[in-house]
Amino acid sequence: MSLRRLLCAATAVVMLGSLTAVPAAASPAGAPQPSAALPATLIPAADATTEAMWKQTPDGFAALPGYGLSGTTGGQAGRIVTASTIEELANYAAAAEPLVIFIRGSLTARDYIKIPVAANKSFIGAGAGSEVINAGFKLINVSNVIFRNFTIRDSYIPGDWDGKRPDNDRDGIQLDTTHHVWVDHMKIQRMGDGLIDTRKDSDLITYSWNVFADNNKALGVGWTSNAVTRMTIHHNWIRNTTQRNFSLDNTAAAHVYNNYLQDIGQYGMMGRNAAKVVLEGNSFSTVQDPIVAKDPGTEVVNRDNIFNDTRGRRDNIGSAFDPAQNYAYQKDDAARVPDIVAAGAGPREDNAPNKSTEITVALDGTGDFGSLQAAIGSIPSGSTLPRTITVKPGTYRESVNVWADRPNLTIQGATANPADVVVSYDLPANGVKFFGGTWGAGGSATLNVLAEGTTVRNLTVENTYDEAANGGSQALAVRSVADKVIFDGTRFLGNQDTYLADTTGRDATARTYLKNCYIEGDVDFIYGRGTAVLDGCTIHSLDRGSATNNGYIVAPSTKNSNPYGILIVDSNLTSNAAAGTVSLGRPWFASSDPDAHPMAVIRDSVLGSHIAVRGWADMSGHSWTEGRFAEYNNSGPGAHVNEFHPQLTPEEANKFTKAAFLGDWTPAGRG
Fold first, then answer.
1. Are the CB atoms for 292 and 268 separated by under 8 Å?
2. Sign of CA dihedral 246, 411, 492, 422
3. Chain CA centroid to CA 252, Å
4. CA atoms within 13 A on the CB side of 159
5. Per-residue confidence band for 425, with pLDDT thresholds at 50, 70 and 90
6. From the centroid of its chain, how far is CA 358?
7. What share of residues in the chain are helix, strand, coil (percent, to 5)?
8. Per-residue confidence at 50, pLDDT binned at 50, 70, 90?
9. What is the average pLDDT across 344-368?
10. CB neighbour list of residue 325: distance below 8 Å, 6 or more residues apart
11. What gap in Å lies between CA 479 and CA 418, rounded to an integer?
């Protein structure tokens, strides 16, 4: 036996162990067997931690007998082969005989292909850097398949973040009516559609120790009216995804334990229809609606899970089933899950963090990524290294989160014209989620900035929700939450509540500096409890066609202990609305907060004729005089001086400057 084949066989022993062969065609005479005896020096020593992470046999439901099989063994009964090209991989995958298929190096498909897989196959990465690019795997009415130790990535169609194009069915792995599948220590990311779609009565499946990342739709299960699927989902790292994390539809028994869900855009684990789900010992970090039982027939057991920085549903309904009646398992303490999973999930020798400080996003394939959210996901969580994402011209339809654990990030358009790069989405705050409730203000934002030290420069962010067609609603373009956030030369487009200067909590403070920005809207379109300085900005009130009331510009909800709310300075307030029909703003007492004392100053700015003679307006039973509102040294036809436009004295004006609002922070570009 050649040294190369001997090494491959040694790896097979480590990864497949002493699996019992399934009924399959006999291997050709003389073919090397993965279970052959090997010199001990070629078999890596395993400590207790490695043994727990790298089992020799599948666990959970994939290990159980059924459908004429004693368990999941993959291609152990067959030959060992190596695929070094996509063509070789496709040929081996479709072979009628059982095979152990080693994937060596980067196998890239010129045009996306979903590779058909026949029964009794093991796909195993041969070492660091083993990956399949712009391709996926399709298992239809087959059984006994194993995927281990390699990456499937990058079939994303730039611009199709929702996955709605008719030619986009670009899953990482798709199972239809398939049983006995083990997916272990894989990394699947940035696919065009789902990362794994487990469909149409597939059964006896285990997904363990995988990384699922940087995708909109992550992991769907179901597409059937039968409640058949039995699956085990454990020690997976699901991060920077949006929906289906998992979505478990009509599962007869889904055992989900010790998974780490981190930075999830919409919802976490969901049971649908007649699903029976047991969720235990999982860690949810920055996940909206972490546990959802969508339908009356769903049973979800929620026990021993940990929730950090989450909001929304944590359902616990029914008794589902008892996993211990099916198999033995050892559960880790949920508090340790983030460290355990982050250290052990994914392919071996494939966890090196991205150290690139310059990342490019482009719709034409010339960038590192085709999606802004995917680019953000490529930055290691917890890294404080300053990084820059440059976005090439185009319209990027996606909902973007700059996660709190990725500080010091600059996102910039590739040109000096912010109209060249547009980030666009259209969720309204009163829009109904398909599983109940509404998106709310934060959920409607096209861009959520949660990380300290973020800079956004030379691009447009818009919420294109159509008020005229669908009725009025909050529909945010941008929500900034973190401290020390800069918007420079950025356009904010929306109607009601275009820009929210928020904080991490009612008692927290956060400072945002907006330099040379353009912000348009009609109702309360600059608002919140954060401290925001708008310096040299154009603030444009949209014309609602009214002869009397065309909206309000600011709606601060500043806490009473914070002397600094919203400052508009050296700016231009413009509109095509009728003269005297737009209020400068009104006081927002969010949730009737007794500790609110809304604060805004508009100074050294040019006010158009649209500004009302009665400059400030009442709100929800609160008089405008309950707020801390003032003006100073404004000019233009809307710069009225009367009892409805309280003016600062020169001495008072010295206390309400950019420097005073921003305190010990001097952002780049501040005068």
1. yes
2. negative
3. 28
4. 11
5. very high
6. 21
7. 10, 40, 50
8. low
9. 89
10. none
11. 18
Q: How far apart are CA 197 and CA 207, in angstroms?
A: 12
Judge contact between 286 and 403, C-beta under 8 A.
Answer: yes
Burial string for 319-348 (b: 16+ CB within 10 Å, else e) reads: ebbebeebeeeeebebeebbebbbebbbbb
CA-based angle 585:587:591, to the nearest 5?
Answer: 135
pLDDT band at 355 (very low <50, low <70, confident <90, very high): confident
As a whole number, the mean pLDDT across the chain is 91
DSSP conformation letters of 197-209: EEETT-EEEEEES
Query: What phi, psi does 518 have (nearest 5°)?
Result: -120, 125
Token output for 486: 């800069």
Whether residue 487 has pLDDT greater than 80 = yes
CA distance linking residue 104 with residue 129, whole number of Å: 8
Q: Classify burial at 409, counting beta carbons within 10 Å of its beta carbon; exposed 0-12, middle 13-18, buried 19 or more.
A: buried
| Nearest residue to 144 (alpha-carbon basis) of 10, 321, 5, 25 | 25
Phi, psi dihedrals of residue 323, rounded to the nearest 5° = -55, -35
Structure tokens at 327: 């198999």
* Residues belonging to the active site: 497, 524
Tokens representing residue 45 in the block = 């020593």
The pLDDT value recorded for residue 509 is 95
Average of per-residue pLDDT across 361-379: 96
Place of tokens 């179901």: 222
Is the C-alpha dihedral spanning 269, 273, 275, 276 positive or negative?
A: positive
Residues near 463 by beta carbon (within 8 Å), at least 6 away in sequence: 424, 425, 426, 427, 444, 445, 446, 475, 476, 477, 493, 494, 495, 498
Instruction: Give the burial string for 363-381 (b: 16+ CB within 10 Å, else e).
Output: beeebbbbbbbbbbbbbbb
Sheet order of strands, 566-569 included = 358-361, 387-391, 409-413, 455-457, 485-488, 511-515, 531-535, 566-569, 599-603, 628-632
Question: Which of 87-91, 418-422, 440-444, 458-462 has the weakest average pLDDT?
Answer: 440-444
- In the sheet that holds 518-521, the strands lie side by side as 394-397, 421-425, 460-463, 491-493, 518-521, 538-541, 572-575, 606-607
HSE value, Cβ hemisphere, 13 Å, CA-based, for 420: 14
Question: Which three-class secondary structure state does DSSP give residue 454?
Answer: coil
> Which tokens in the block code for residue 569?
């300075």
Query: In the numeric block, which tokens belong to residue 80?
Result: 């060992």
What pLDDT digit, counting tens, does each position of 176-209 carry?
999 999 999 999 999 999 999 999 999 999 999 9
Query: What are 127-169's pLDDT values in tens digits?
Result: 889 999 999 999 999 999 999 999 999 999 999 999 989 999 9
* Phi–psi pair at 174, nearest 5 degrees: -125, 130
> Are β-strands 491-493 and 518-521 bridged in parallel, bridged antiparallel, or unpaired?
parallel
Pair 437, 398: CB distance under 8 Å = no
CB atoms within 10 A of CB 468: 7
Note the pTM of the prediction, 2 decimals: 0.92
Q: Is the pLDDT of residue 250 over 80?
A: yes
Alpha helices in 297-418 (DSSP H): 337-344, 372-377
The number of beta carbons lying within 10 Å of the beta carbon of residue 623 is 12
User: Which segments of 255-396 does DSSP mark as H helices, in order?
Assistant: 337-344, 372-377
